[in-house]
Amino acid sequence: MKKVFILGSTGSIGVNTLEVIREFPDNFSVAALSGNRNIDLLEKQIEEFSPELVVVNDEAEAEKLKYRIKGKCELFIGERGFVEATKSADYDVIISSLVGFSGLAPTIEAIKRGKRIALANKETLVVAGEIIERLSEQYNAEIIPVDSEHSAIFQSLVGESPEHIRKILLTASGGPFFDKPVEYLKKVTVAEALNHPNWSMGNKVTIDSATMMNKGLEVIEARWLFKLPLEKIEVVIHPQSIVHSMVEFIDGSIKAQLSSPDMKVPIQYALTYPERFKSNFVSTEFPEIHKLTFFKPNLEKFENLRLAFNALKSGGNSPCILNAANEIAVENFLKGKITFTEISDYVKKALDEIEYENSIGLEEIFECNRKTRNYITSLINKDKN
Ligand code: MG
What we know:
Elements: E1 2-7, H1 12-23, E2 28-35, H2 39-49, E3 53-56, H3 59-69, E4 74-77, H4 78-88, E5 93-96, H5 104-112, E6 116-119, H6 123-138, E7 142-145, H7 148-156, E8 165-172, H8 182-185, H9 190-193, H10 203-211, H11 213-225, E9 233-237, E10 243-249, E11 254-258, H12 264-272, H13 286-289, H14 303-314, H15 318-334, H16 342-353, H17 362-384
Parallel strand pairs: 1-2, 1-5, 2-3, 3-4, 5-6, 6-7, 8-9
Antiparallel strand pairs: 8-10, 10-11
Magnesium ion binds at residues 147-149, 218.
């Protein structure tokens, strides 16, 4: 029986993880759950899965939940609560699925305890890839990707030697604006951007998919997960989202992992690896799919993808600046304060204006994140008021 800690159990990955756990009651139990403001759902999850510990980010909501659960489980509160809980809870696997930079600190605590990290929070590797790589080796922590593309590559590499990789091909759906002209992007509404053609995900990652920043972050994530230089990472547009990614080997042979898009497949694999468990979450009917198509990404139209490639090339604090500026820009787009194409304008401004630092430790990463968020927030307030 493996005990699972879910960081972000009320989000899309968290809810899917609980569906997987529900299928295998003899193999997995829930050690800890956590949420931000959706305490109604969190309370239901506590009733069903009886965790020993719960973390709530929002203090006011935590007080309400405390009253409702009346000592059924230990309650930790706020950002510090996430760190304390990952330090002290009794668990074997942690599903790291908080949104954005906030996932970094608790994931590091789980790494320091040598746990299996089922990593859905790509930002952890984007902002601190080198440090995470070093710490997971030092503490013998196992990082298994949950991101569908990285899970596909991870699965394609089972039984293969890293030196046999010619390149990896990260597939991207292209999002809802793949076949729209550049001018169209200027007038995109929040509702249109939230309407992803293939995947049902949280708001942040759905907007990132529409701007293609998500693929940019995934390129950086892949660089650290698979220890590959940028030249060996290629992005391919694949609108059907059936091929979840591919690996090309030095003899020209290519392996891919395919299925109808459903996050329960990579989540289950991260929990059961190296085993596979029988489940019926997806079936893939090729005669109904008819065709699988592939295209080159358009870096002129999707500026964010180009910015992400450049940030990875320059290294240092650039990926951290890219990520922090994007988080603030997406928040402001969702609030209707900035337009869709302004998201990449603000990311570019942050990369141009914030001082580049070549070698950075963990403290500098937290500082760079804070500085960039403040800079973009005040810039948007100045521009838009
Ligand atoms: Mg993905």
